[in-house]
Amino acid sequence: MSKDLTKGGKPLNLKDELLALFAGTRIIRIDVKKDLKYFASDMNRLLRATDENENFYNVNNYQENTPNDMVKTFEKMQDEAFRIQKDMYIRVQDLKLLDLDEDVIKDILIKSGVNKKLANSIIDGEFTPINYSKARFETKVKTIENELEKEIGKFTFRLNEEFVFPEDDLDDVIDDYEDREFFKETFDEESEQFVGGYYPDRVDYKLDDKGFLITDDDGNPIPDDGFIKRNLRKVAPIIKKGFNKLINPASGLTSNAPPLPQTPQPKVQMANNMQQKDPITNLTRTETALLSPTEKVIAGRT
Burial, 75: exposed, middle or buried (Cβ in 10 Å; 0-12, 13-18, 19+)? Predict the structure, then answer.
């Protein structure tokens, strides 16, 4: 009899499932190397799926699928591949917390079918652009030529291959995406550390109810203040309120601090040039500017 499996392909443990059912607590058993192999295989599958774009190699309506359209499609494919590789980088950083050496990580990635360049780039936090299939484009060109030959005859046409396969433009896209960093980091001189990247060893990040990272629109995990800072924010208003009561005589609280020395009453020097009142409103310019409509009526009558 075969065992039931989790979504990740791991066999369910009956004791763990009963504990989760009755106590609401789930035990997560981690097999780091096995998990990394699964993540690597999943990344390879997603990257291959990214290249399967019907608007890229398809010969249908090729006349309407301009080189500019194919460049935009290729850029969208790069953006999707960037997100997939970035997710893998985040997982690798998490696995490092379990004392998994970078060399071991790289070796597992390569053995799981990840090419050496991509494995190194993920560990370094850099993007490796996906390539186009030159063979599939050549097949696309050949297919269109054969169809045109059937319709209008041989030697009566010349297909513009650059329109069907804009190789130089696609190479420019790859160059533009080459070595892009997953996170834009800056060096903080005060802490003498890089900030803006993903550092699960020293930064807490927000998690959802299932324990997954919460990310922003760019796929960046959102830092969490953590337990201490969250509680400081709760305590700070209470401390401030108590301090205000301490210095407010109306609160009935007294302080052991010595009383302040008496200070002379400030002298107010009246202005020599009194402002003239408007003969219509009987108000000065200051009163007109500062008083409310009701106050203006009262002041105008006095």
Answer: middle
Give per-residue pLDDT as tens, 155-210: 566 778 999 999 999 999 999 999 899 998 888 888 788 888 888 888 888 888 87
Tokens found for residue 287: 């009163």
Of 106, 121, 114, the C-alpha closest to 41 is 114
pTM beyond cutoff 0.70: no
In contact, 59 and 144? CB cutoff 8 Å: yes
Calculate ∠ Cα 64-66-71, nearest 5°.
140
Comparing CA positions, the residue from 53, 46, 42 lying closest to residue 136 is 53
CA 193 to chain centre: 20
Angle at 195 between CA 190 and CA 199, to 5 degrees: 125
Domain boundaries, the chain: 1-29, 31-202, 203-251
Assigned token pair, 95: 């696995």
Dig out the tokens for 7 from the structure: 């979504």
Nearest-angstrom CA–CA distance, 297 and 281: 9
